Amino acid sequence: MKKRQIFAAATVALFLGSPFTVKGEEETSQRILEGVYLENVNLSGMTQEEAAQAADRRMEEIAGYQIQLWMDDQSVGIPASELGVSGDNQKTISQAAAIGQAGNVIKRYKVRKDLEEEPIQLALTNQADKQKVQTALETYCLPLNREVTDYGLTREGKGFQITNGQRGVTLDMEKSVSLVADYLENQWQDGNGSLELAVDITEPRGSQEELARVKNILGQGSTDYSSSSAARATNIKNGTSTLNGKVLYPGDSISVCSAMMPFTEENGYELAPSYANGTTVETFGGGICQVSTTLYLAVIRAELEVTERHNHSMIVNYVKPAMDAAIAEGSKDFQFTNNLDAPIYIEGYAAGGSLSFAIYGEEYRPENRKVTFESEILETIDPTVELTADTELGFGVTQMTQGPHIGYRSVLWKVVTENGEEVSREEVNNSNYMMSPTKYKVGVKTDNPEASSAMYSAIASNDLNKVYEAAQKY
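Above: the chain sequence. Below: its structure as tokens.
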């Protein structure tokens, strides 16, 4: 009877293919059953230590795969290792080692037979380091951010060429970090991966159809700068170039001063005369007011909405009173809005002493309607003379330091006619220009006290004739 029991035990043991071991040996040398996989890694016959090494090799392989991250129509491939992919699979390996090792002989035998029919595939555990994910996105994806580009126009010959717009793309860092981490840990299986990041999209304004409506000249303006110095001419050309080619969509506004700034040497401007508080001074960008003024003429003739406009402190000689538009950084601006239902295109040209602007768009006014602008002078203020003593000049010698400017009070009228008949007359602006006196320095250098006294009296009278009389007398 005893021999039969021993034989039976040995027979079952051989049938199951398990060696006789003592308890301590089983814990250290127990092999994982045939048919157990960690994803596609076959763990059959491995010890836990060998399985852990196999899992580490698999994680190294996985870390080398590329994850293609998409931002709209742009993408960049980043190695999984740079996204901080790692894996602690010790618990899974312990689970693999425990399969078919518990229960009675029959139960373990059944598990082995089941594995022959259908292997068990355990999942690798991936972890993603969110800080490494963010660092990788900052390095590779932030440079893919793209400003929106609206549909635009370029002038070609007598027509226009429409340029296509492009969507603006901005990475949403916080959402994208979470998306990448979740993808790596819960969705990505094997091989190279691909994921759409969270981005903010800005659609371009305009379209081929909308810009095709820009074909008519709505308003024009031109002035002459042929008498300008070379520096002033440079400023006019430079300022004009900043405005040429701009497209304003319906509802868009533009600050002409901001468009031409900064008025610096680095931005192409030179020192030239300009007005400041009733005097003429040298400033970088002197002459740019002729640019804003010429554009103003085109804008009002196109009947666009002017939201800010200022006259000069003193009268200018290139347009009639009330037809100017002065600008000065921080104090004066010329701004207008495209109040039409179609885009407009600004064309500016400065060459050969002639400056011109044209506003293109879709003509919306009937052919029998005409608009003109009339400058009316309400008051003229003649310049005075202002004399100052100069102790370095010879007695009675005069030097003009500032030329005269006549003062004006004026108004600009918008006159609308239909079929040649005036139907409306509207005040556009009311402009006042300072009178600027003719200024002279008068020499008072003399050793004769009487002559000196007489000349100072003449200077105090601001009368050049009395200066001449004193000079002849002494």
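Confidence is low (pLDDT under 50) at residues 1-28.
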